[in-house]
Amino acid sequence: MLVFSPTSSIGRLLLLRTIAIVLQLVMVCSGVYLFEKDINLYPIVIVISIESLFQLLSIYAYRNTSEAAPSGMLLQLLADLFFLTVLLSFLGGASNAFVSFLLLPIVIAAVTVPKNYVVIVALCALASYGYLFFTLPSHHVHHMDMHQHLTGMLVNFVFSVIVIVAVVMALVNQIQRKEHKLAQAREQQLKSEQIMALGSAAAQATHQLATPIANLNLLFEEMAEDCPEHPAIQDIEIALEQCKQQLEGFRAQTESLKTGYIEQMKLVPDVLQELSTLMALQYPNQNIEIIDKSDKLRVNADPMLLPALLNILNNAARANQQNNANTIHLLSKADQGGWSLTIIDHGKGIDPMQLSELGHEIVQSDNGMGIALLLSHATFERLNGSLTIENHPNLGAQTHLFLPTKI
């Protein structure tokens, strides 16, 4: 069973070579028996037989491979050049009308292998043509004063090689760039649809939680009246208040995004102060160390900016808790016309296999699915910013955020 398909690069090449071998036999036999050409069949049949054996070995070698590596494609194309050169050397060399077939491996290389390999194939094709030209028998060259004609064919071949390498490769690069842009657009569309689905689910969950929380608040008021001295009263009140604040904040953010908000700017020190206050409420045991060199920069006061930053800090705090640490470093500074913020925790770091996926797609892990980072990354992209995550050489994970600003 063959794994590669006829639509793959190696599949097309092997199919084309099979057709070429058949045509070679048909044309040689036609020249000998129909047109009564004086051709020595013995060496030609040997070359075609060796080429056929090489074809069978190639099919066997790639039977379990869906696509050949660039180096493998290069060897296949060089083999085609070699067999074609040997055949043409027995059939008139550079004076043969089919000598232009040496251009085919260059065309195939231009659309299947990297640029440096294309250059190698082109140079080998030029060397093959040069060998066929300079090894022509003298009676072929001087017969009917064919020297100028053959020299013109050589110049034409060199020019054709240059045009193919330059033009075809340029077209291939242009197509590849367009395909890359289309792939990015499809990926962005899928990501947007995924984020919209997550947002809809979050809004639905918020709506469904509103009634139970209101009922709990009524029950708490009755309990506070009956048992005002109970030690858990104060803790329950704080927890309920936090739930109500989170619900109201989510509703306000949703409403501002739905109706459209007026773009306002907020000082970076104010943003950092709000983050520090929120983290003190949620993680009172975590120490936030802030080094701010932002020089009074202003960032877009987007309603989702603070929650996006808070998501990253929440991840840092949980990483610290798992590693029995309690310090999170925030390094804020002005950087190339924007605001650069680095968040460093003292956790165990992130699995290197997941670093490239975090923030770009949902990642399953022991601590969650990375949805918070996915939403944060989407917010920063919407604000023309960027988010990168890596492991610190000595501490835990470090997250780099960049946002455009105004002074």
Automatic annotation (TrEMBL):
GO terms for molecular function: ATP binding; phosphorelay sensor kinase activity. Residues 204-407 form the Histidine kinase domain. The gene is regB. Keywords: ATP-binding, Kinase, Membrane, Nucleotide-binding, Transferase, Transmembrane, Transmembrane helix. One of its GO terms (cellular component) is plasma membrane. InterPro entries: 2C_sensor_his_kinase, HATPase_C_sf, HATPase_dom, His_kinase_dom. The chain crosses the membrane at residues 14-34, 41-62, 82-104, 116-134, 154-172. It catalyses: ATP + protein L-histidine = ADP + protein N-phospho-L-histidine. It is an enzyme of class 2 (transferase). This is histidine kinase. The keyword 4Fe-4S does not apply. It comes from Pseudoalteromonas citrea. The keyword Kinase applies. Its EC number is 2.7.13.3. Gene3D superfamilies: Histidine kinase-like ATPase, C-terminal domain.
